[in-house]
Design brief:
Layout (H helix, E strand, L loop, with lengths): L1 H37 L9 H5 L2 H8 L3 H12 L2 E5 L2 E4 L5 H4 L27 H11 L5 H4 L3 H18 L7 E2 L3 H15 L5 H4 L6 H7 L1 H9 L1 H7 L3 H8 L9 H7 L10 H13 L9 H7 L10 H15 L1 H16 L1 H16 L9 H7 L1 H13 L9 E2 L5 E3 L2 E3 L4 E3 L2 H4 L3 H4 L15 H9 L14 H8 L2 H8 E5 L6 E5 L2 E5 L2 E6 L5
Parallel strand pairs: 2-7
Antiparallel strand pairs: 1-2, 3-11, 4-7, 5-6, 8-11, 9-10
Helix pairs in contact: 3-12, 8-9, 8-27, 9-18, 9-19, 11-15, 19-22
The structure holds protoporphyrin IX containing FE.
Protoporphyrin IX containing FE (HEM) binds next to helix 18, helix 19 and helix 26.
């Protein structure tokens, strides 16, 4: 009696699997046909596979080729290219203000919760929610407030130079310089955010493998954003989401690594939340009296209802600046030194400017921001040019087209479509920068005020519009100071036979294998 039932159940199961498989194939084929021929974006050119599935875009990101591919596609198809079923990439820099206008919402590409359970400013999608929150926390980030931290940057810069002098200046000996700018950037930003440095400079090493581990997790981070419908579906199953998708200090790679870093005195516990709680209580008890760092400023913020920020929000904001503000600054310094040490003409011109300004008494022992602004135009142009050619986040920053849709070059783009630019691509717009757009030529920023204003208008490395990087001024402060002191102290010689490796993973970029020799420079008086 039992065997026919088992056979029947087996038969029904096979039937169910066959029906489900056929159903899935019909759905996928139908969806592909719709996306290719009937979707409102079907009229836009682009790779056919990209129009059918988001996996095409995720694959470009995974292969570390996304910005290069987008640039090539723009040359092949023109300024608007369809790069996923619902996303258009725009390479025309002059469209930045149109796409990144004040009311533009971020798309679901900005996966929520992946930096921890509480929403950060960076991830808020609705412009209305974002603008309210940004208004509340923007105060400490203004240039005048950030300048109160100039001595904090000086302290770490001095230590950075001293440590490199002790460890790296050895006649004829090459070493890999790539992590040293990142050590400096992390110590500065962790001091700003936590009231104490993580200690990379002291140790002269990637403490707890934090930097490398963070990089290793970026592949997953990039894929989660590009495949957000799948990510959001999987997130409905909390046991999977909590285990794999929300960063936690216990993780061995990615953003969790940074969460673990925590408070400088908490080793080996190293946990962001505990560390932060300790620092906040120390600030309250007056231990850091007289300091005006970001953490203190965040504690002093009052919302429109007159309430202080909740601990969860302070934690998230401190955490976001660690993620957003260390690696990015480190990459910019790497790029700057890479460009200038490869080009003897640029290097010589730059060092002449710096040495002449020092001899004329225009620069303090550790140059101050104002002095750089007034006396080192070529140095600032070098930084701008490095940021143009090598944006640390050569990523997608999609915005949703607002109500009523948008006209792009005579074609209608419906409301809700994702539009994105990529800084790597718009910074190479030949209409703006001319035929030598690929060349590192700092002079272009100094030739005419009109041109420089135009270039500045279409810079996208820090984002654009109301979501532009909140730490932009602090980054500028750091970049106008740290690398300058490095160049005043040392003569770097990059090994031309082993060029550095440039990585782009999950929308972030950085260099490894920057083999060089360092010589101490004669002090200029
Ligand atoms: C060269 C260094 C840096 C680069 C290239 C950079 C780039 C960016 C970019 C591209 C965005 C996102 C824009 C978007 O989603 O549309 C962003 C946002 C942000 N950055 Fe930076 N960043 C840098 C340094 C910093 C620093 C030093 C801090 C903190 C002190 C910081 C804090 C933030 C914050 C809080 C946001 C979110 C702003 C918002 O959504 O309102 N960044 N940054």
């Amino acid at each position: 009696m039992t065997s026919p039932n088992v056979a029947q159940v087996g038969h029904s199961l096979v039937t169910a699997v066959v029906v489900a498989s056929v159903g899935l194939v019909v759905y996928l084929v139908g969806n592909a046909i719709y996306n290719l021929y009937f979707h409102p974006l079907a009229k836009f050119p682009g790779p056919r596979l990209a129009a059918v599935t988001r996996f095409w875009l995720a694959w470009q990101c995974y292969k570390e080729k996304e910005p290069y591919v987008l640039f090539e596609l723009s040359k092949k198809y023109g300024p608007v290219v369809r790069i996923s079923p619902a996303m258009l990439h725009v390479s025309d820099a002059t469209k930045l203000p149109v796409i990144y206008h004040r009311q533009a919402d971020k798309s679901k590409h900005y996966i929520t919760g992946s930096f921890g359970a509480t929403e950060s400013l960076f991830h808020m999608q609705a412009h209305s929610e974002h603008s309210k929150y940004r208004k509340a926390i923007a105060g400490p980030y203004t240039l005048s407030n950030m300048r109160k931290n100039e001595s904090l940057i000086d302290r770490h810069t001095e230590k950075w130079i001293k440590r490199m002098d002790e460890l790296l200046v050895q006649p004829g000996q090459e070493f890999d310089f790539s992590l040293w700018p990142v050590f400096w950037a992390y110590d500065v930003i962790s001091d700003l955010g936590f009231g104490g440095p993580f200690g990379f400079i002291d140790q002269g090493a990637d403490v707890d493998n934090l930097i490398t581990g963070y990089h290793e997790g970026l592949h997953l981070f990039g894929a989660m954003g590009r495949l957000y419908p799948i990510t959001n579906f999987v997130k409905k199953f909390p046991w999977i989401a909590n285990k794999y998708m929300i960063a936690k200090p216990e993780n061995d790679d990615g953003i969790g690594m940074i969460m673990r870093a925590g408070h400088p005195t908490l080793n080996p516990t190293r946990h962001l939340e505990l560390g932060l709680l300790l620092t906040l209580s120390e600030i309250e008890s007056g231990k850091f009296d007289g300091r005006q760092d970001l953490l203190q400023s965040l504690m002093e913020i009052r919302t429109t209802e007159g309430k202080p920020l909740e601990f969860e929000h302070i934690k998230t904001e401190v955490f976001i600046i660690l993620v957003a503000g260390a690696d990015t600054v480190g990459t910019t310094v790497q790029a700057l030194l890479n460009y200038i040490t490869r080009d003897a003409r640029v290097y010589e011109k730059l060092m002449n400017e710096v040495d002449n300004a020092t001899r004329a008494g225009h620069l303090s022992k550790l140059a101050q921001f104002d002095e750089v602004l007034q006396h080192l135009p070529y140095y600032m142009a070098c930084i701008k040019e490095a940021q143009r050619l090598c944006p640390p986040a050569p990523s997608l920053f999609p915005r949703l087209v607002s109500k009523g849709g948008l006209d792009l070059y005579g074609k209608f783009v419906p409301e809700g479509t994702e539009l994105t630019c990529n800084p790597y691509v718009v910074h190479r717009d030949s209409k703006i920068y001319g035929p030598d757009y690929e060349e590192f030529r700092p002079e272009r920023w100094l030739e005419s005020e009109e041109q420089a204003t135009l270039y500045q208008k279409y810079q996208f490395g820090f984002g654009y519009g109301s979501r532009i990087c909140l730490g932009k001024e602090f980054a500028r402060l750091e970049l106008y100071k740290g690398p300058l002191e490095f160049l005043r102290a040392f003569k770097p010689t990059l090994d031309q036979s082993r060029p550095p490796k440039y990585h782009i993973e999950g929308g972030e970029s950085w260099f490894t294998d920057m083999w060089m020799r360092l010589e101490r420079r004669e002090l200029v008086h």
